[in-house]
Amino acid sequence: MTIQTKGTSQSKTPTGEHRKGTILEILGASTKLGMTSFGGPIAHLGYFREEYVTRRKWLDEKSYADLVALCQFLPGPASSQVGISIGMMRGGLLGGIASWIGFTLPSALILAIFAFTLKNNNIGGAGWLHGLMIAAVAIVAQAVWGMARSLAPDRTRGTIAILVAIITLLWPSAYTQLILIAVAGLVGRFFLAKSGNIETSRPQIDTSLSRRTAVIAWIIFFGLLIGLPLLRTIVHSRWLALFDTFYRAGSLVFGGGHVVLPILQAEMVPSGWLTDAQFLAGYGAAQAVPGPLFTFSAYLGTVMNGWAGAVVALFAMFLPSFLLVIGTLPYWDTIRRRPNFQSVFKGINAAVVGILLAALYDPVWIKAIHTPYDFCLALAAFALLMLWKVPPWVVVLFSVVGGALISL
């Protein structure tokens, strides 16, 4: 993704008196963004730039562009990781936590309340609920289209995406997806050489994090990623399984929030933790609230285990983002100059497009589109998103009303 900038960079730098701030200041700024940032990750980055670079001048344009590039390369929610990084630059580790809480909590609370509404009322066959599922068709289709244009624009990457989609559909498994991502990275390393020169004049990202802290973060990250599945085979605990599922999803999702859909669906629906209808209804509702799409985890956790489930799922989903940001920021200036690193991620990003394309068919399409009326509503919603540039939350409300009318 490319973030467009206007004019020259700000005269203020993220050093000295402009870098440090109070926790309440960071929490207030991020909460404002968490309550008003509609439109998905790309829109979130625009909101962040306006608030943190243009208005508050917490960092300059080039440093912000570097942070965006860093978080695009990491698995997990890019916009949340940018917010966490800015919070850490402004107020250390506590600043990063405050930034995450402010940006995440509003949508997480809304989705948890929505989950309680579904659990406590017999609305399984409600037309408006089916409308939410149809909205998911249009929104995922838009995500596939946009990501394919930017992440699989040529013959080689387009072929990777198609092959990954085919294999994902024929051998559906969360492990299949992980293997395909790894193989695509290797293909990118050897067949997608970095084109053009790598810019070396970018300013160093200013952070107080030490390399020792970064090493500890990487040890914890990989320790949990490898250890939790092994521990699950020994300790049969629903809570451990819940934490492991969301931690792995947050650790291994490249390409943003939409890509978490097939990974979580493959883990949770076959296990009987919730139904396809519940899963897709929550995914549709997540489009109508501000903030990061990963707060979908709060909805899923609530459906499974109430408020405690929401807290565990939300914490596990975002914990990898913290560890990855802490572990990478001190090394970013060295890593970003390596062309092989960028080639690997070209292949991974193409695979992400294929995984999301497969998810568009199963479970999204086959669970939501049953009649010509359903298809017409999905087509209208897609047109509103793509042609008329209507905000996703408005399209969700349109689909809810349409689904209710179809049921009549």
From TrEMBL:
<keyword id="KW-0472">Membrane</keyword>
<feature type="transmembrane region" description="Helical">
    <location>
        <begin position="128"/>
        <end position="148"/>
    </location>
</feature>
<keyword id="KW-1133">Transmembrane helix</keyword>
<feature type="transmembrane region" description="Helical">
    <location>
        <begin position="246"/>
        <end position="264"/>
    </location>
</feature>
<keyword id="KW-0812">Transmembrane</keyword>
<feature type="transmembrane region" description="Helical">
    <location>
        <begin position="344"/>
        <end position="361"/>
    </location>
</feature>
<keyword id="KW-1003">Cell membrane</keyword>
<protein>
    <submittedName>
        <fullName>Chromate transporter</fullName>
    </submittedName>
</protein>
<dbReference type="Pfam" id="PF02417">
    <property type="entry name" value="Chromate_transp"/>
</dbReference>
<feature type="transmembrane region" description="Helical">
    <location>
        <begin position="160"/>
        <end position="193"/>
    </location>
</feature>
<feature type="transmembrane region" description="Helical">
    <location>
        <begin position="381"/>
        <end position="406"/>
    </location>
</feature>
<feature type="transmembrane region" description="Helical">
    <location>
        <begin position="93"/>
        <end position="116"/>
    </location>
</feature>
<dbReference type="InterPro" id="IPR014047">
    <property type="entry name" value="Chr_Tranpt_l_chain"/>
</dbReference>
<comment type="similarity">
    <text>Belongs to the chromate ion transporter (CHR) (TC 2.A.51) family.</text>
</comment>
<feature type="transmembrane region" description="Helical">
    <location>
        <begin position="307"/>
        <end position="332"/>
    </location>
</feature>
<dbReference type="InterPro" id="IPR003370">
    <property type="entry name" value="Chromate_transpt"/>
</dbReference>
<feature type="transmembrane region" description="Helical">
    <location>
        <begin position="213"/>
        <end position="234"/>
    </location>
</feature>
